[in-house]
Design brief:
By secondary structure, this protein is α/β, with parallel strands linked by helices. The protein has 13 helices and twelve strands. Helix 7 links the parallel strand 6 and strand 7.
Amino acid sequence: MLREIYEQPEALRRTVALYLADKKLKPKVASLLARWTTPEGEVLIAASGSSRHAGVAGEILLEDLCGLAVDVEYASEYSCRRGMDHRHPSVLVLSQSGETSDTLAVLREARRRGQKTLAITNATASHMAHEADVSLPLGAGVEKAIPATKSFTCQLAALFLLGLYEARRLGRSDAPELAANIERLLALPASIEEQLDGWREQMAKLAGKYKSASTFLFLGRGIHYAIAREGALKVKEASYVPAEGYPAGELKHGPNALVSDRMPLVVMATVDRALEGSVLRYETTLQLLRDMKAQGARVIAIANAGDRKVAHLVSDCIEVNPATEYLLPIAEVVPLQLFAYFMALEHGVDVDRPRNLSKAVVEK
């Protein structure tokens, strides 16, 4: 797992290279995607586990960048609802293996109904990659550890690229904006690379500090809620410590009753100051942190490098380099992966082979 966490910058570079050439979108990919969405712009994303969390981030990204109407479903639930959905959206499935049984069932049902399908997988020879109308492969390489790390960040990158292609096709992005987003994406792997060792050292110390916690509550707003969910899943599957990902704005609607010294908070508190909605999200998160400090909660925050406002309000602050709102999730999740890894070591867990789990949930 640790090796694959460290492989993420190169995995991201390989994935990006599949869809960009000379810092431009590849015309061949654009032609594949040209008739994928419906005229109404309705999209259904179906996935399970970490892939669903990528889909939750993709929902906001595709809605904000492209103006599409996106729903995200648990593949395991949606595959049991045949005949009950009267919509006719295009269907996007996400799977590391391309063989996840519930997700494959959704893909096949969509094809039976005549819906357009797109698969984002890490396995070009998989059933999903072959059966979908359009296949967008990842360049993550073989992922051996059961907890998904590099496949997850590559899924986020692929969804960002899909957003760029769709925004350009739909006229939602002009040439200068597209070029700026491509530059930001190309710069991200190096930015993560330079932060990895610092995050590793910080998270090793925090795992020792918080190893006695009985549970964790991960909080995020907007696209960062997906990373709160993923961070919680990583802690659960890697270290067997209970954790839950929750929308930050919903904390006081019940879960706050659980917050105590034995239940620390992990809060996504980054910001893209060039985006009004991100600044609003950040300001409301700051107020939540003030309230939690007054309440005496123990809080770990993921924040922009140099953000003293957040640092003064929390017990521990992990810094990430600033990025655009829709790329911040890729950077944010990496220290959370490291935290889960070191929590597993603190609890004596074989992090690469957590009990009762397999790399791909397939039919037997």
